[in-house]
Specification:
This protein has 92 residues and is an all-alpha fold. The longest helix is centred in the first third of the chain and has 29 residues.
């Protein structure tokens, strides 16, 4: 395999991974919407004090988001993508 072809394949893989990461983040935000709303309500009208006054809501939101945005989830999405695409075309 030539250098140019290998570079193109790596570029495609990076683009696919970026798209999968984006999809993963969108799903996480959708799944954690109630925590996002709680944090937004707490943070409303605050500036620096949001750090300590909304710590509980921030921790809850981060915990929820982490359940849907971690390496294991990304690897599962990659496997699903490879099965659906037949190891080829970039369909996301």
């Amino acid at each position: 395999m030539g250098y140019v072809q290998e570079a193109r394949e790596n570029h495609v893989k990076k683009k696919v991974e970026e798209a999968l990461r984006s999809k993963m983040k969108q799903k996480a935000l959708k799944e954690c919407d109630q925590y996002t709303s709680k944090y937004a309500q707490c943070a409303s009208g605050k500036t620096i004090s949001v750090v300590w006054q909304c710590r509980k809501q921030a921790k809850e939101l981060n915990h929820c988001l982490h359940q849907f945005t971690n390496d294991a989830v990304l690897e599962e999405m990659k496997k699903d993508y490879m099965l659906q695409s037949g190891e080829g075309a970039a369909r996301i």
